[in-house]
């Protein structure tokens, strides 16, 4: 099996914690005045080595110093975290159920999961997140 039950639960907890941490970080990004050093000050001094080149973060510092741009950066950051929070755990849970069914065919937990009242809703939300937050309903979805 690719994942144990504990691995799945730990992954869910990690994603929840990361999303809540991202929400806290947006306060630093959106309202730089009360925090020292500010996000833009920190970005000015950052460089990241990519292969043999040093990549400066000064472009982010410039954007963080403009209110409209700062709000957009913050929203993008949260949407990225939301994507990770919803999409990855859904896939991991699906994989876990499929693997469990292969190991113990009589359990049929994939079938039970898909019959759960929350499953179709979660699947549609996961799909929307995977496709730029657009819902695409096929014939099966419309019947539901």
Overview of this protein structure:
By secondary structure, this protein is mainly alpha-helical. It has helices spanning 5-30, 39-45, 58-64, 67-103, 109-115, 119-130, 139-143; strands at residues 47-50, 53-56. Strands 1-2 form a two-stranded antiparallel ribbon. Helix 1 packs antiparallel against helix 4 (67-103).
Strand content: 5-15%
The helix fraction, in percent, is over 70%
Q: Provide the low-confidence segments as ranges.
A: none
Strand runs, count: 2
Briefly say what this structure is:
This protein has 144 residues and is mainly α. It contains seven helices and two strands; from the N terminus they run H-H-E-E-H-H-H-H-H.
Q: Could you give the topology of this structure?
A:
Blueprint (H helix, E strand, L loop, with lengths): L4 H26 L8 H7 L1 E4 L2 E4 L1 H7 L2 H37 L5 H7 L3 H12 L8 H5 L1
Antiparallel strand pairs: 1-2
Helix pairs in contact: 1-4, 2-3, 4-6
């Amino acid at each position: 099996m690719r994942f144990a039950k504990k691995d799945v639960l730990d992954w869910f907890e990690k994603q929840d914690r990361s999303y809540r941490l991202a929400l806290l970080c947006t306060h630093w990004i959106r309202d730089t005045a009360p925090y020292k050093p500010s996000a833009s000050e920190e970005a000015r001094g950052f460089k990241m080595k990519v292969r043999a080149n040093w990549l400066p973060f000064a472009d982010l510092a410039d954007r963080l110093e403009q209110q409209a741009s700062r709000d957009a950066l913050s929203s993008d950051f949260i949407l990225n975290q939301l994507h990770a929070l919803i999409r990855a755990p859904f896939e991991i849970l699906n994989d876990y159920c499929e693997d469990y069914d292969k190991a113990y065919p009589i359990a049929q937990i994939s079938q039970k999961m898909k019959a759960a009242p929350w499953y179709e809703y979660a699947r549609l939300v996961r799909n929307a997140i995977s496709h730029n937050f657009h819902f695409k309903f096929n014939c099966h979805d419309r019947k539901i």
